[in-house]
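## retry 2 of 3
previous attempt timed out at serialization; input unchanged, resubmitting
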Amino acid sequence: MEVEKLTIKRIHEGLQQKEFKAEEITKAYLERIKSYDRQIGAFLTLDENSALETSRQVDQRIARGSALNILDGVPVAVKDNMCTRGLRTTCASKMLEDFVPPYDATVVEALKHQGGVILGKTNMDEFAMGSSNENSGFHPVRNPWDSSRVPGGSSGGSAAAVSAGFAPMALGSDTGGSIRMPAAFCGLVGVKPTYGRVSRYGLIAFGSSLDQIGPFARTVEDAAYALEGIEGFDPRDSTSAPGRTKEDYAAAMKQGVRGMRIGIPREFFAEGVNPEVRRIVLRGVKSLEDQGAEVEEFTLPITQSGLSAYYMISSAEASSNLGRYDGVRFGYRAGEYKNFEELVVKSRTEAFGKEVKRRIMLGTYVLSSGYYDAYYKKAMLFRQKVRGLFREAFETYDAIVSPTVPMLPFKLGEKTQDPLEMYLADLFTVNVNIAGIPALSMPAGFSESGLPVGIQFMGNHFEESKLFRIAYALEKDLGLDLIPELGGVE
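## retry succeeded, writing output
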């Protein structure tokens, strides 16, 4: 069974028509993971027994004639910063290497309720801090399209799992581009929903005002089904948006783009963007224009400053959120210490990686007395400016388009010695999180060397349906082959 070619819709139809059983599908995916994942490194923990038991329960419901949810029997990979009851949740950090949560995150709970089959937990940059998945406390993830290159971060394990055909969908979290960037580098659809649309309860926090859970899938339609499956108000999350009903994105997306207005910010296509990336993304824009969309250039002067503000805000919140890991209340505890202060220092020094330490120190600095007003307060004021600029833009445009990442997937180790160069990979994604708006990345084509290139569509708050409409129209026109050949991975 060529499970790498299956979609959520195809699995649903096959189960309904009894072409195959859910247990067969799950076994096939598990076998593919065992065959190839030691070369990719997408998973940190597999939950084989539980996955097979869940799939058997789906088969039993089918045998009884019960109606199927769209996600019934669909295997799912979950980023390892979302709590899973009874299953190790590490955040790819030595700090939480042995942590087994006593409860499920709301999104995991939702998937289980709808019959989703949780295969296991995927690798990531430690505590979601990184753009390449080289910051994992265990091992890096390799890009299925080229094993010498990174898959993007921080949700690189989830992206690589879907790209390599280990699961038809996966969950990631996006604080400054951590779903969209890996989606672009791995040739997938990745959705960062509006802040508050998807519950963060059970997501181990990095930057609480920026974090948002979203799906990876190979097709736009699958991404729509996945988002429908996890969205909704949750009273356990104080930032969850109340009063919103679930939407039928899969139905809405087939309306076409004729008459839709799409804005192209000049700043997002200026100097610094790889020429191949620019050419491929603009070709996608031309496709939408040919289908009846109205495309227009405009100015959105926030790109460079947005990156600085993002790292101020996210590092400050990370410093606060990670303060709980002190060797006493949560996480790793050093073996030998003379007093409480030495316990805390040793535990944090031994268990946190370099990038996490760097961001904790930066965040502590910008929150400290004498620097709070100069840095953090200014970043928060800038955040209001960003929201205002996007609000004005969406009075004119249905969506804004840009490259997802200004560069092609880079080699493992290529940027690890220069954190600032690594941070530039987030140039076009961070402003979305600052403003809390939704964005979708999808494949726009391939470079001459066969590397995926992503195009990003940004929309107004709670207007994900427009993004799905645009992405679906482009996907149908491009007709890309998005299944990498894993036989040559070393």
